[in-house]
Amino acid sequence: MSGSSRLDRLLDERGTGQELGQYVVAAAFDRSAGHAAFALGDGTVRLVALSAGTEWTSVTAHDGVVLALAADATAGAFLTGGDDGGFRRIDSKGRVSEIASFGSKWVEHVASAAAEGEGRRAKGGYLACAVGRVVHLFDTDDGKLKALEHPSTVSGLAFDARGKRIATSHYNGATLWFAAAKEDSPRRLEWKGSHTGVVMHPDGEAVVTTMQENALHGWRLADGQHMRMSGYQTKVESLSFSRTGKWLATGGADVVVLWPFFGGGPMGKPPVELGGGAGELVTRVACHPQQDLCAAGFADGSVMVAEMVSDRMLPVTGPGRGSVSALAWSSDGATLAFGTDTGFAALIDFGKQAG
Amino acid sequence: MAEANTDQVPVTVLTGYLGAGKTTLLNRILSENHGRKYAVVINEFGELGVDNDLVVDADEEVFEMNNGCVCCTVRGDLIRILGGLMKRRGRFDGIIIETTGLANPAPVAQTFFVDEAVRANTRLDAIVTVADAKNLPQRLEDSLEAADQLAFADVIVLNKTDLVTAEELEGVEARIRAINRFAVIHRTQRASVPIAEVLDRHGFDLQRVLSEHPDFLTDDAHEHNDDIASMSFEIDRPIDPEKFNVWIGTLLQTKGQDILRTKGILAYANENRRFAFQAVHMMADGDFIGPWKEGDPRRSRIVFIGRGLNRPQLRRGFESCIAG
């Protein structure tokens, strides 16, 4: 890490970092941006109260690997999935409770749709987890609503911004479900091949998947138009829509790739490329929830925040602590969390005034 | 799979027909006091006696790659499972993947050629096929998979030898040899074979390609056109790498569906290092390995295991690669 001190300035001045010694599988914030969490390869989660800042609490969530982490539907809590078959909740005090157990099957993806209102009086909202070919849907009291069956293993899971629809990815395409539908008649979005992850456009206009081949595939929902986005150096593991849905940021190349989702794009439009030059692969991207900024994590461990379109870069950390494997913004956009495959994790406070 | 990376976790693929003794072998591997820790990927929870090891429940989910290669099928579930296991790195000495009795081993092997993360973190060590000495002849009659499993094997555990006569055993081993002359065969009862003969074989290691085949040039007559056979060719004049690439590339593109495995060690013109080559169907991998030994003949050798192999055509093709 010598020689990179200038690049580490933000981490040094505004960050708190720790060497955790375990693969950081995911980072997330709860819905009120009061807590951050890091899911680790040894089955534990590090819970951090952002107001307290420096105290990181270790919570044993799973016997094995924490495979998935997401904010719960209500504020203050998180959902986790593990290779011990558990779908669990961690509250702000670090208490772990079981929502459901699936025995020998892995719980590989978890997600939630926000409930309206606060605390115990919260209404609506959903919890979901993907276990093999089935997505299990729960209400916020952990009551099982239904099981959504797929033709092959579900590789990705995402609610739309309004929490009404669930998009899933699997072999030969994606599926779109209405969470509240009494009778399930899902919309099948077909494209041959193995789809490995899914995101939804913030306005619900499109579904985009990552693929085993070095490409993305999308469907414009209004008319079913296919969108092919290719040209990557490697398999794309991370993608994130900008807050307005104008841009789709992705990793998978030695630049941040921004596909335009306006003016007829992305079909027939070249993507905008941000950063690069060091030749390092972008492994994780996360768009800022309130501004046209995109955080990017690289295979050499460095992290930067780029201003979209203008191409201005702000280094967050320099290289040297593993490959970035987790990256997330808090919902208020004030805190950035990242983690690496060798076990470094950090929180950067963008909210406090400089000086 | 090019360079030997000590961080790569070895993966052993265990195939064989239902009832051949796969589970017995697996239990033997896991229960033997070897002080190692394995993750085992199986399709159904059977009677596995595992305490220290992790058992992962998988579905054999095969998909076709969209790369215009018709036989390029891959196990997507393995990509996910191996990715999950790698997040707890350092906790396994090896991974064993058991396939169902009817499975074709090709998609498992091809997974290790296709996915970059799988290639970076794990290495396909060997395909081990358990065959039942008593029932194998019948299985070869009534299914294609039985022959495929033998053809892909680096190690064959010929089990239940106590259930057949000495003549029957010779007969069944001859049938195996007709399909795959290059696998190591272990005759066993109750799948009793030393673990070192099954795990860490480096069967897909370019460094070890063709290194364990002393009977390389034994006579391989009597292959029937539609049966799986193995054929080998040898040339003692230097090879032109460009000619070889054109020939093998075209051959695997056009005949790769029928050619199950290819392995070769090549002496390129004006090159002191050996070039090792291997392929599973159309998916190929090759790299320079160490230099030729001083005084050893610089002989290029190539082996094909496949269906309907045309010996004169393959020989002419290989000979057309001689540097001019």
Written description of the protein model:
The complex is a heterodimer of chains A (about 350) and B (about 325). By secondary structure, chain A is mainly β. Chain A contains one helix and 30 strands. Chain A has a domain of about 120 residues: YVTN repeat-like/Quinoprotein amine dehydrogenase (Methylamine Dehydrogenase, Chain H, 7 Propeller). Chain B has nine helices and 14 strands. By secondary structure, chain B is an alpha/beta fold. A seven-stranded parallel beta sheet of chain B has the order 3-2-6-1-7-8-9, sandwiched between helices. Chains A and B meet through strand 16 of A and strand 3 and helix 2 of B.
Question: What labels would you give this structure?
Answer:
heterodimer, A: 355 residues, Methylamine Dehydrogenase, Chain H, six-stranded antiparallel sheet, four-stranded antiparallel sheet, 1 helix, B: 324 residues, alpha/beta, Hypothetical Protein Yjia, Chain: A,domain 2, seven-stranded parallel sheet, 9 helices, 14 strands, 27% helix, globular
Low-confidence stretches of chain A: none
Number of domains of chain B: 2
Helical fraction of chain A: under 10%
- By oligomeric state, this entry counts as heterodimer
**Total beta-strand segments of chain B:** 14
